[in-house]
Amino acid sequence: NAFPVSIQGAVGHAMSNAFPPERLEDLLKVIRQDGRYSTAQRLQALKTLDGWPEGPNTPQLIHAVLERMERDTDVEFLTQCVGFLGRRKAYSAVMLLIDVAMGTRLALFEQGPDLATLESDGVVRLRCNAIRTLGRMGDGRAIVPLVSILNDRSQNYRLRLDAAESLGRLGDGQAVNPLIQIVRDERETSLYLKESTIKALGMLGDIRAVEPLIEMFESKRGFREKFQFVLEQAVHAVGRLASRRDGKVTDMLVKAAVDEAPSIRLAAVEALGDVGDESCLPLLRERLQDERMD
Asked: Is residue 84 packed enough to be buried (19+ CB in 10 Å), middle (13-18) or exposed (0-12)?
């Protein structure tokens, strides 16, 4: 049901009035030119460009923002640029976003510790934003850099958490083994990183993760108070991964279904339903009568 030509013409006329080419040029000047405009003016121009419709001028718009990012040193402006590029699905920006995630190349990172200490909250937030954007964009070029951040214990823990979850969102099997190594690494003391890694393995849906997750669950059950939220995430992940009958999976979930912790029991019951093993029906009926499940 196409619009009548007259309506289409009216819509086109309204769009050209709302987004005139000369207005775009003015906005791009604000983004590009040094010295003449303040950060506040650039932020306002970027906000306006964010609402600009996709069209022939989109590559020009993306290019202007990328050029500005390389030489700008304002953390808030750069953070907003990263969000802008992600919303535009600007695949031409992936390599620059990788540089932001890694803390390299931009003028911001070359200014020295007074301005760009990599541990400062604003810079960490900027880099985390870039890492999450890379995960949402789904470009395989981000896998190796994100694995590097994940494995680097000198990095801020927030960067490593976001790197793990972004690897899960990328959906590429290359990330499975590095994530499994984090799960199995006894020297890795961050439980939050373990949780994010397990969640990522569940997103990836690769059967290679089932056995390491079962091993982790069995080895940590005796330390429930410390590891409860990690164990709960492991149960959820195994339930998502085990799309076929597997005796080890069923045994793990049955143990989890009678665990002392209500959250682990609930996760196990949901996972058993996903696995679909009919031999577990009596246990599931029993759990229905369990007042502790409320």
From this structure: buried
Neighbour count for residue 112 (Cβ, 10 Å)? 8
pTM over 0.85: no
244/258 Cα distance (integer angstroms): 22
Place of tokens 């997103």: 203
pLDDT at 158 over 90: yes
pLDDT of residue 144: 97
The one-letter amino acid at 279 = S
**Quick count: other Cβ atoms within 10 Å of Cβ 191?**
14
Across 237-255, b (16+ Cβ under 10 Å) vs e yields bbbbbbeeebeebbebbee
Rounded Cα distance between 283 and 259, Å, is: 13
Q: Do 259 and 265 contact (CB within 8 A), yes or no?
A: yes
Of 67, 143, 144, 147, the C-alpha closest to 106 is 67
Do 58 and 88 form a contact (C-beta atoms < 8 A)?
yes
Residue identified by tokens 């196990």 is 268
Residue type, 21: P
Q: Which of 15-24, 131-140, 235-244, 245-254 has the highest mean pLDDT?
A: 131-140
Distance CA 165, CA 175 (A): 11
Question: What does the pLDDT look like over 97-136, one tens digit per residue?
Answer: 999 999 998 988 887 655 446 678 999 999 999 999 999 9
Chain centroid to CA 35: how far?
35
Distance CA 141, CA 126 (A): 19
Q: Amino acid letter at 267? A: A
